[in-house]
Amino acid sequence: MKKPIIFCDFDGTVTDNDNIISLMKQFAPPEWVPIKDRVLNQTITIQDGVSRMFSLIESDKKKEMIHFLKKTAAIREGFQEFLEFAENRSIPFYIVSGGMDFFVEPLLDPYGPIKEIYCNQASFKGEFVEIKWPYPCDKECQNGCGCCKPTIIRSLSREEHFTIVIGDSITDLEAAKQADLVLARDFLSKACEKQGIRYIPFETFFDCRAILEQNLEVV
Ligand SMILES: [Mg+2]
Ligand SMILES: [Zn+2]
User: How much distance in Å is there from the Cα of 217 to the middle of ligand 2?
Assistant: First the structure.
């Protein structure tokens, strides 16, 4: 019998919306838009684009940004119940996020248990926000992911694991390719369809719990 292990995205998965986009709309000058477009049409890497977008925001906005997201970011329904379900089944739950520590950690603080949070780091020491990348791509990934989800999964997964990936966007696609079970919504579900990757759609974490209850019995 294989041991389930969960890797869950944060922006657009745990939260309803993408927090980087919310922050840019609220705090960045309009120059962030063409940078975002270049990330989306893949003429620059995610890592490069996100660095450039945050470098448009002054460091002294830190508190205001955290306050803004705490007030506006909605956590998807059933998240705490899902964490408790995983805990009861002794399934380790990891967050793998392309977001930044200064908002991922405070937004997740009321919830648990979470085995580990993998995300990027923001430095507010200079005049403008600087992003640090503690989890870069390994030799097997050339995408410039910033926070490389496939690399993290490779480093934590063992032969005996049944790897579950939960996500919503294109940045979860490479991770989904390595998973034994994919729970997908939004762009990720469309991408999986195009690439012929088997997935199960979800909207809330209550759906995720029901999906695991059904699918783990046969593992
Ligand atoms: Mg996401
Ligand atoms: Zn990568």
Answer: 32
